[in-house]
């Protein structure tokens, strides 16, 4: 299990791929501000967190305006048993 160890309430948890503070985490917090976030190492781990009951939802990027489609998701989602319930556009501003 590659998701962070947690004692969070699964019904109030949303999984994402990445580290706390990453763009996916920021998107989760913007859309579901009252939910706890669960950082996962891979997209597969985020999907598994929902399947295993460690999270009620997962927020996964499907497109990136710089890099294009997130190809892994387009291969993983059809066989995951999960489905898209909404969308959110996160404006990313790099501060280099």
Structure description:
This protein has 96 residues and is of the alpha/beta class. The chain has one domain: D-Maltodextrin-Binding Protein, domain 2 (3-Layer(aba) Sandwich), CATH 3.40.190. 25% of the residues lie in helices and 18% in strands. It has three helices and five strands, in the order E-H-E-H-E-E-E-H. The chain has helices at 23-31, 43-51, 71-76, and strands spanning 13-17, 36-40, 57-59, 63-64, 68-69. The strands form two sheets. The chain has a three-stranded parallel β-sheet, with helices on both faces. A two-stranded antiparallel sheet has the order 4-5. A hairpin with a 3-residue loop joins strand 4 and strand 5. It is globular and about 35 Å long. The model has no long low-confidence stretch (mean pLDDT 89).
Structural class: alpha/beta
CATH class: Alpha Beta
In this structure, how is the largest beta sheet organized? 3 strands, parallel
CATH architecture: 3-Layer(aba) Sandwich
Spatially, the strands of the biggest sheet line up as: 2-1-3
The whole-angstrom Rg is 13 Å
The average pLDDT score comes to 89
* Shape, per Cα inertia axes: globular
Relevant CATH superfamily: Periplasmic binding protein-like II
Name the beta content range: 15-25%
Total separate domains? 1
Q: Whole-Å distance between the termini? A: 34 Å
Order of helices and strands: EHEHEEEH
Helical content stands at 25-40%
Q: Uncertain runs with pLDDT below 50, 5 residues or more?
A: none
Specify the number of helices: 3
**CATH topology assignment:** D-Maltodextrin-Binding Protein, domain 2
Oligomer: single chain
Q: How many beta strands in the DSSP annotation?
A: 5
